[in-house]
Specification:
13% of the residues are buried. The N and C termini lie far apart (72 Å). This protein has 194 residues and is mainly alpha-helical. It is 44% helix and 3% strand. Strand 1 and strand 2 form a beta hairpin. It is elongated and about 75 Å long.
């Protein structure tokens, strides 16, 4: 007979605190396997997401949704305290709500930036200031957003809606993108004009 046991607790600490029997520990500790939490192996998230999408579509017998780059970025920015089970549940809920369209996730904000300040477009490093981040002014932030919107339009050759459109790339609704284009007086790229 073989027994497979799993825990997220440090059993050696539990033995020292007399909350776990030492003899039982040595009976179970024949072939230990350490599995890192999902937050420590974020490179697995896109593959796991694709797998869970396929499973959900098969189990629910529904139309296959699209996993956009913006959605993948959102998954990567979350810490996943519930590990792979939480990811699977989030994916399944999104597949149910997507109805064959683009996946949208309802993840809580963790309050911790998912990337370093050097990579963050909203924080810049002043020259000669010992790499201390500074805050952007409202005008600088608007200019960054406007430039990013223009890059998205160029990358999609002016396509706004649908799969691989600028709205999907940015992770916003097409109506939101059109409103921002009007507000910031951004035109479609020359190649996309009729």
């Amino acid at each position: 007979m073989r027994i497979i046991g799993a825990t997220n607790r440090n059993l050696k600490e539990a033995i020292a605190a007399r909350r776990f029997r030492e003899d039982l520990y040595y009976r179970l500790h024949v072939f230990p396997i350490h599995v890192s939490p999902l937050r420590e192996r974020k490179e697995d998230i896109p593959l796991l997401a694709e797998h869970f999408i396929e499973l959900s579509v098969s189990n629910l017998k529904c139309a296959g949704p699209r996993l956009t780059r913006a959605a993948v970025a959102e998954l990567l920015s979350y810490d996943w305290p519930g590990n792979v089970r939480e990811l699977r549940n989030v994916i399944e809920r999104a597949v149910i709500l997507a109805r064959g369209g683009a996946l949208r996730f309802d993840l809580p904000m963790t309050g911790v930036p998912a990337h370093t300040p050097v990579q963050d477009p909203q924080v810049r490093v002043e020259q000669g200031s010992n790499a201390a981040p500074s805050v952007l002014t409202e005008a600088e932030l608007r200019n960054l957003e406007r430039d990013n919107l223009q890059r998205a339009l160029q990358a999609t050759k002016g396509k706004i809606r649908g799969p691989d459109g600028a709205a999907e790339l940015l992770g916003v609704k097409p109506t939101t993108l059109l409103a921002r284009m009007k507000k910031w007086e951004v035109k479609k790229p020359e190649a996309a004009l009729p």
